[in-house]
Design a protein that fits this description.
Blueprint (H helix, E strand, L loop, with lengths): L6 E2 L9 H8 L3 H4 L3 E4 L7 H8 L7 E10 L2 E10 L3 E2 L1 H9 L3 E4 L2 H8 L17 E4 H4 L4 E4 L5 E5 L1 H5 L4 E4 L3 E2 L16
Parallel strand pairs: 4-7, 7-10
Antiparallel strand pairs: 1-2, 2-9, 3-4, 3-6, 5-11, 8-9
Length: about 190
């Protein structure tokens, strides 16, 4: 089993996507001091593969899903952060939060272009400042979560409460649901974890 060489996120800034590194250095020192980074095998960036290879519990993975909502010609984007073992409620909760008629997962190429991050590494840190970041309330109670670093070759580690307190974040009760036998956990793995 490969090991994670975790270091303070600021020390690893050269291994992170540029928007992520820029956003990290803008954080208050006490917040930045609680975020660590580690290089990983890019082929193991998806949640299940990462958890299995590195022995990190799936329940500690926090997926970042880019959603696009439409109302007429107006397109509104948001990032939704849910624990990897849960399912994002796009059709009811996200649609209401964005005040749109239709909401869906943003296409991969669009998410990559708009964020400046790699698919499979998109993270709530460093997103466009005009985007709301909706975080499921269960995330803030997690002792530690793993999220993307903007690239597939690294991960960020931080307490759920720190993630919930980041700029542009709105904590939402019921943003995600527990999957049932008929559903899968969070859909696209454009995840942070």
């Amino acid at each position: 089993m490969p090991t994670l060489q975790r270091v303070p996120a600021l020390v690893a800034s050269s291994q992170l996507a540029i928007p992520v590194a820029e956003a990290l250095v803008a954080l208050p020192a006490d917040v930045l001091g609680r975020i660590e980074a580690a290089p990983i095998d890019p082929d193991l960036a998806d949640t299940a593969a990462f958890s299995e290879a590195y022995g990190f519990p799936v329940e500690g993975g926090a997926n970042c899903i880019v959603v696009a909502g439409k109302r007429g010609d107006d397109v509104r984007y948001a990032a939704c952060i849910v624990l990897a073992h849960t399912r994002l409620d796009v059709n009811r909760v996200v649609k209401k939060l964005l005040d749109v008629r239709k909401a869906s997962f943003a296409p991969m190429d669009q998410a990559v272009e708009l964020t400046g991050m790699e698919y499979g590494g998109i993270t709530p840190i460093g997103l466009p400042s005009s985007w709301p970041v909706f975080v499921d309330s269960r995330v803030q109670n997690a002792p530690e979560v793993v999220i993307g670093a903007g690239v597939r070759g690294a991960k960020l580690f931080l307490p759920g409460a720190v993630l919930a307190g980041l700029p542009h974040v709105q904590v939402v009760d019921g943003l995600a649901t527990e999957p049932t036998a008929a559903t899968e956990p969070t859909a696209p793995s454009e995840s942070g974890a």
